[in-house]
Amino acid sequence: MTVFLNQDLAFKIESDLREGNKQVIEAWNRSGFGTTAKAIEVGNSLSVYGGSECPVNETVGLGMLSPVEESVLVEIEEFYHLNNHSAVIRVCPLAHSSLIELTQKRGYILNSFSYRWILDLSAWRSSFDLSDPRIRIATSNEEMEWARAVAAGFNDVDDVSKEQNLDLDRAFFRMQNSIPVLATENEVVAAGGILAINHEIAALFATSTRPSYRKRGLQTALLDWRLRFAKDNGARIATIETDPGSDSQRNAERVGFRLAYVTAELIKPVSN
């Protein structure tokens, strides 16, 4: 049966993202890394702040169940502005129209777009006979190797400095539902990613490859391995997020993902 996008499915996808962000913050703060992250839940949404450069500084889930009250936006703005950071809201196009109306009224500006993709695992079949032998689940004592490889890929370098803060990457590794997966080449951890299964939804994220190991099929192999694992473990839908026009988008489409919707990131600078 083909999976069609509707408000109910969008709510499940956004709820899964909100739950994932919540698990990241919980893992981060219970691990004693030396830094901490903050989060508030308001209006069926979750707002996260993990430091000035943290890529998961965002509010997700707003307007997916009911109209948005202005008091909710005020609380979110106060949370971010107390941390000297722009208020950040990720808007699903199936959210209630009141969210757009209020963000316009309160001076938010468009900052970026992201694509959310879905794949119906019940109908999906891998195009490969076998999973790639370079891919496997990372063991607990490989946390730092995995984190360094993923951080290096996102920073477009082959390795990160010893001073590089890896707290977010390690929090991804330690999430409650996290299945950290790595790819090796000649016994070197060349790439990594996360699979998190919550009920029927499998989320694939934090996928990155060291620059000198790119163009070797590792990204596709990581996708294929996680989709096989998710399907074998009862997930019905897989999701992934990419930047528009990126290599990650092309890899996702090659394995069968189709575009669910485009999200808009709206921000309200501290000075507003």
Describe the structure.
It is built from 7 helices and 11 strands. The N and C termini lie far apart (48 Å). The protein has 2 domains: 117 residues, Aminopeptidase; 126 residues, Aminopeptidase (3-Layer(aba) Sandwich), CATH 3.40.630.30. The chain has an 8-stranded mixed sheet, with helices on both faces. Strands 1-2-3 form a 3-stranded antiparallel sheet, with helices on both faces. The model has no long low-confidence stretch (mean pLDDT 96). It is globular. It is α+β, with helices and mostly antiparallel strands and 272 residues long. Helix content is 33%, strand content 28%. The longest helix is centred in the N-terminal third of the chain and has 24 residues.
Layout of strands and helices, then pairs:
Layout: H1 7-30, E1 38-42, E2 45-49, E3 59-60, H2 70-82, E4 87-91, H3 97-105, E5 109-120, E6 135-137, H4 143-154, H5 167-174, E7 178-185, E8 188-198, E9 201-209, H6 218-232, E10 237-242, H7 247-255, E11 258-268
Parallel strand pairs: 9-10
Antiparallel strand pairs: 1-2, 2-3, 4-11, 5-10, 5-11, 6-7, 7-8, 8-9
Helix pairs in contact: 1-5, 6-7
- Helix run count: 7
CATH fold category name of the largest domain = Aminopeptidase
What string gives the helices and strands in order? HEEEHEHEEHHEEEHEHE
Number of domains: 2
Relevant terms:
272 residues; alpha+beta; Aminopeptidase; 2 domains; 8-stranded mixed beta sheet; 3-stranded antiparallel beta sheet; 7 helices; 11 strands
